[in-house]
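Why do we care about 3D structure at all? Because function follows from shape, and shape follows, mostly, from sequence. That is the central idea of this module. The next example makes it concrete: a single protein chain, its amino acid sequence, and then its structure expressed as tokens.
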Amino acid sequence: MILRNKHRRPENPRRESPGRRGFTIVELLVAAAVSIFLMVIITTAFQVGIDTFRKLKAQGDMQERLRITTIIMRDDLTSWHFGRGQYLNKQPLNTAFPYNTNGPGWLPPDEGFFRIYQGPENLADPNAATRGNPFIIEGTDSDNIIFSRATKHALHFAVLRQSAGAENRFRTLNSGLYTVVQPKWWIYPSDYIDGSSFSGQWAEVAYFLVANGESANGTPLYTLYRRQKLLLPDEPQNVDLLVAPNYQVPAPNPNPEISSRNQLGTLFYNRAGGPAGAGAGNPPTSITQPRYRFGMAMGIDNLADPNLAGLFTPPYGPPGIAGQYQLYPSLMQELPGNNNLWTNDVMTTNVISFEIKASWDSPNTGAQPNPYLPQQTYQLPNGSTVVNTDYPYDYLPVSPTNLAFAIPGFNPPVYARVFDTWSKEGIYGQGAPTNWSRTDFPGGQGSVCLPLRIRINALQIRIKIWDNKTEQVRQVTIIQDV
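And the structure:
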């Protein structure tokens, strides 16, 4: 009997082992495509996020630049301009001679000044009626609200800080070439000079544009500058002139941040009379004279004076245009070489427009229509009109009395529009009156006349800037009582 082992493995058993399957080529391709797709989505989202952040940062930077500009400009505008407690709206030029019939009326201030300049934007305009417009119309929207820009406007005025504290004073260098020679009558010179700097409560300040050579899709871009020049303390009336010299700012390298009359050669402020040297500094009294201020060309207020003819040619403006200046020199233009002061006057860059409008009281001239009234509509070169949506704020009227601001070579005349609180003082060192209220010229016009007899109550200042990264325009509108 043969016994069989039921557990005996059969001969040549078939081997069985768990198999491991790999990805097919199709599966690999699908997985790669999905991965690439996800990576594209993530990369795109990341890029969008970066671009959004960049745009937001650019917008924030633009807003910050405008905010800082607004704060500084408001601080200057709300300061005193003609002595303690004296603002621009307390200068009723609309009551000045000859329109006031109830007495002498307004007289120019004894200290300080305020000036607004608006040059014609398009002297090539074939339409004579709009050639002198101080603005460029860029278009209107569906509500007929105009979009305009201005590049030849400027503000120039004296500022008296309301606090005498050291932290609120204007300050500049007083070392090396830039030195203020101390008059002997300064009883407390430490009030003004502290070794390395000169400080004071008074300064003349100018806001103006200078082209920077770039453009925003064809629209020229500018840099907005704020030049600040300190005024020296007033000379006492009873000072002994034989003992106390006048203010001297050494030539030929005067401090670019101290107001001086070195541009006038030998003529300067001297109560003793007569020429007495170059580079004299301006106190608040002499700065009432337009000719003594920063950036001003000779002949602005008295072209007929034979003693002053031909002494000065505007180095930064269109030559031969009386009353115009382009508009002022920046520190970079005024200082030679590579100077560490070059950026001290830069307010903001890539500016498209710096536009100034005013609200004012007009004199009752008896003329119809009154040439001093704010305009409610503007005429365009194509003959159409648009509504002044900023009314009662408007560009300055054309001065009908002062011929110094006529642009030569145009018939009918084209005028720069200028408001200035002017001066009742004579030319220092000469003693001749400015005759600011004269009316004995043909048609009541002359180069010495007060430019505009209006009382300005408030200003509207609109600044537009461009951002190259986002190609966006942002603007701020400042409305300020003055």
